[in-house]
Amino acid sequence: MASHRRPKQPSRTRVTVLTATAAAAVALTAQTAQADPKPSKSEVKAKVDKLYEEAEHATEKYNGAKEKQEKLDEQIDALQDKVARGQEELNALRGSLGSVASAQYRTGGIDPSVQLFLSGDPDTYLDKASALDQLGAKQTEAIQEIQAKQRTLAQQRQEAQGKLKDLADTRKELGAKKKEVQGKLAEAQKLLNTLTAAERAALAADESRANRASSRADLGNAVPASQRAAAAFSAAQSKIGSPYVYGASGPSSFDCSGLTSWAYAQAGVSIPRTSQAQASAGTRISSQSQLQQGDLVFFYGDLHHVGFYAGNGQVLHAPKPGASVRYESINNMPYMFGVRV
To answer: Could you tell me which of 238, 306, 222, 236 has the C-alpha nearest to residue 264?
Structure first.
């Protein structure tokens, strides 16, 4: 017969230990919550601005890769066109040489001395022999020309293959930079989503005030750096209020170097697409006091941001995602130098 034992009750010591453990866990959770409070609106804004700055740095790298891709596309098209034309010329040379060879084959089976013996008119024969000598010389030249054309074609094909490899690498870089930019922007949006609706509205209101203040900017008695600089600056002014979009170069949206390159293009001046390359587009100006309206101004140690000097300590630029083309103080960012195109 099976025995029925009464279940063993937990000891008082065990209950005490479990209670203490649970209390410690609750206390630890509370401490963790206190140690990791929700970031304030200003802290979120600072982090978002930092992410936007990193995204702009990646955007300029993306722009550089895109510009390189476009140049490689043009170079490859030109090389492939050269190769096609060269192949046609080579085929024509070979065809011409083949016709001469066929004619020689039909008449070249008889020894020249026998031909002279059989000829009823030695003078006519000698004239033909001289012509054949000249034909032989032309044939030799044709062969040499064919060989030279073959070497040229081989070099052009090799160069085209190298360009195609560069293009594949550049497209890979382009994709990586685009992914990096999108990642930074997504991370910034994720941070913004942690704010309350009222906090997000307050940040949006700050941006709106900055945009409105741009229309009241005091440029003083700014003197243009040149007639073309004046034309470029005027073109940029016409885009005040246009949104910042990474990789955009107008006419309805811009990133920082997209605005400057587009504006100078309206003035008939071609400058590079990226801010880093634009830094070498003219004469460098170190002192802010020497800047004139229309000069390019560069910011941050890696030169990933560029705008126009507007006058009276103001710059005209495409600032960041969520903002529009506007005037701001030159002191809002770490100034490096200016460039007079």
So the answer is: 236
Using the 8-state DSSP alphabet, how is residue 11 labeled? Answer: P
> Quick check: is 304 catalytic?
no
C-alpha pair distances (Å), 63 with each of 30, 169, 190, 278: 48, 15, 25, 12
Task: List Cβ<8 Å contacts ≥24 apart for 325-331.
Answer: 325/236, 325/239, 325/240, 325/241, 325/242, 325/243, 325/244, 325/254, 325/259, 326/210, 326/211, 326/213, 326/214, 326/240, 326/241, 327/213, 327/214, 327/217, 327/219, 327/240, 328/210, 328/214, 330/288, 330/297
Confidence of residue 104 (pLDDT cuts 50, 70, 90): low
Nearest to 291 by CA among 229, 226, 335, 225: 225
Beta bridge partners of residue 335, listed in sequence order: 299
Q: How far from the centroid of its chain's Cα atoms is residue 227's Cα?
A: 29
Q: Are 29 and 130 in contact (CB under 8 A)?
A: no
57 is catalytic: no
Structure tokens at 134: 């000249």
The rounded distance, in Å, linking the Cα atoms of 197 and 6 is 60
C-alpha distances (whole Å) from 310 to each of 65, 234, 237 are 30, 10, 10
310: part of which helix (H) or strand (E)? strand 305-311
pLDDT exceeds cutoff 90 at 3? no
Question: What's the chain's average pLDDT?
Answer: 82
Cis peptide bond N-terminal to 251, omega within 30:
yes
Q: Say whether 317 is catalytic.
A: yes
Task: Give the pLDDT confidence of 146-188 residue by residue, as tens digits.
Answer: 788 788 888 888 988 998 898 899 889 889 988 999 999 999 9
> Higher-confidence residue: 12 or 307?
307
* DSSP class of 254: B
Residue 70 CB neighbour total at 10 angstroms: 12
